[in-house]
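Bug report (template v2)

What were you trying to do?
Predict the complex of my protein with fe (ii) ion.

What happened?
Run completed; filing so the output is reviewed.

Input:
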Amino acid sequence: MMRAIATPWREAVRFPRGFRYDGKPWTAAAITDPHCTPTPSSIRHGRPYEHLGDGAARLARCFDAMCELPEGERPAFVLLLGDIGVADAEAVLTGARRPVYPVAGNYEDGELRDRLRAMYPHLFETGDYYAFDHAGVRVVGLCSAGVGNDHVGHLASEGIRPPGQSEWLGHTLDGPWRPTVLFSHCPPMPPGFDRDAYLERSSHEYVPFLADNDSRFLISMMERRGPLLGLFGHQHRATYGFDVGPSHALVLRSSNWNHDGEAIGFLLLRIDRTGISLREILTGTPGGGRATPGG
Ligand SMILES: [Fe+2]
């Protein structure tokens, strides 16, 4: 396989003064939008990346690249931020040599949502959202997929079980501060974002976020309970970040295809004594033509 390219490490979140993290440095990975099961949209947008194989092969490139990292950078686990295409991702995911923690994307609706739940019963037995701890860091997976098949994300929806995800998040973040990483499919709107933009579904510039009410709620949580790191996907664009008060949000590039001919890849995060740092691992570039926006 083509050798993956790693961007430089950059600090994303610095722990508050007075907080002491005593664990050894460790890393985790985050992958979004592998779209392993082809849809008309992913076929169309994925055409420039076909020389890299299908969606499952492009997902496999991420896991292969993790194995090629220096030993100290190999991730302890992988967060999978939705739009997985579980029907065709299963072989890659069951062959992964590290634990995988998924949440649903908007393409995981109906039977596909059930299949995802069935693949990871230990995670989804109590619902579509969950939290776990690793080496003193709390990791919180939020379901923003609503009933699915809707590019606008939702945290409060009858399609997310059990009801009360927002209240659960509030309780989960209560108590003494500790390092926390949130991950979900749809990002909140950055503070100051033009809120009319998401109404213009036919616009060339359309970028899908959480619905306004849920977006405000999540931004408020990150402002009040931070510093936290929030990881999101869904937009198929070059990875970008924005500060939310003391917290930091990152919207990740897809591992399958991206708008504007951007490279595909995944994220590495490293936790050490000072905070959380990030670097991207780029696993491929388009081989012909450019992806077109929309869809
Ligand atoms: Fe999506």
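What did the reviewer find?
The longest strand covers residues 275-284. The two ends are 29 Å apart (CA to CA).
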